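Dear colleague,

Following up on Tuesday's group meeting, I ran the structure prediction for the four-component complex that the binding team flagged. I've pasted the input sequences exactly as they went in, so you can double-check that nothing got truncated or mislabelled along the way. The structure tokens for the whole assembly follow below. Feel free to forward this to whoever is handling the docking comparison.

Inputs:
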Amino acid sequence: MIVSTKGRYALRVMVCFAQRGREEYIPLKEIAESEGISQKYLESIMTVLSKAGFVDAVHGKGGGYRLNREPEEYTVGAILKLTEGSLATVSCTTQGASACSRSTCCQTLPMWERLDKMVDEFFEGITLADLLKEEQ
Amino acid sequence: MIVSTKGRYALRVMVCFAQRGREEYIPLKEIAESEGISQKYLESIMTVLSKAGFVDAVHGKGGGYRLNREPEEYTVGAILKLTEGSLATVSCTTQGASACSRSTCCQTLPMWERLDKMVDEFFEGITLADLLKEEQ
DNA sequence: GTATTTACCTAGTATTTCCATGGGTAAGTA
DNA sequence: TACTTACCCATGGAAATACTAGGTAAATAC
């Protein structure tokens, strides 16, 4: 598995906010219920999104969260990298060249690097606006 | 991370066998030492490769393992699927359509399915022979 | 036929990551 | 002042990961 619930939840929630527009603030409780996600768990995810400036937060009644920018301006890659920390497919490529003693002669490393690049380009090529258009 | 050490070790070991040809059997101990992998851990991986008919095993002195087929006939995908069990990037796509109650209306599911397909085609498009040619 | 070498089998275990849960505090609104 | 909301910190269970340990069975060499 390359993406855990944390990143997947973050993405789904961001899609929700994108659908709702930037007119009003939506409380976390509402999003958690409509998406069927644990409210407490979602809190920790929203904190990350908020601190990174992906969403705008307001306390008190009538408060909640909303997007800070237009859906076109968020790539799936940016959201996932923020919440997941890394999207590396193997640890070989994450830890830098010095981590694995065999990196200089490893026959499989170039393949992992190509895969990482491909996955990164895939995620960077999709925005929230693209996901909104998605139909089943 | 999409591929754990188990799959990565399996791949590296298969490359080793491919490099050594099918003339002689190579004992696990030799491979483990040259690759710097725990001998005992590698045992469990070789058992899987052996049972699947990917390698041929012979007991006693002069015994060991060797490839059963030519390097061109092994795709990276086949080796990884065998040892990792699954190469699904998210659990949404693994557990079948019924697993996630939101699969029919999920705005992100089509993206995960496209990613899975892309990754699968990537791995299926590379053989052991291709890895042998790899240069750093 | 005994010793050695190798693969094969079963079980256990320490560590880490994942996926939350619980309880409180601070900020803003009616 | 009461209420609603975001924010903060600590804890815990479950599963996976990456081994480790100790034995058994098969083949070969002497």
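Chain A touches chain B at residues 1-3, 5, 8, 11-12, 15, 35-36, 76, 88-92, 101-102, 104-111, 114-115, 118-119, 122, 126, 131-132, 134, 136 (CB under 8 Å).

Cheers,
M.
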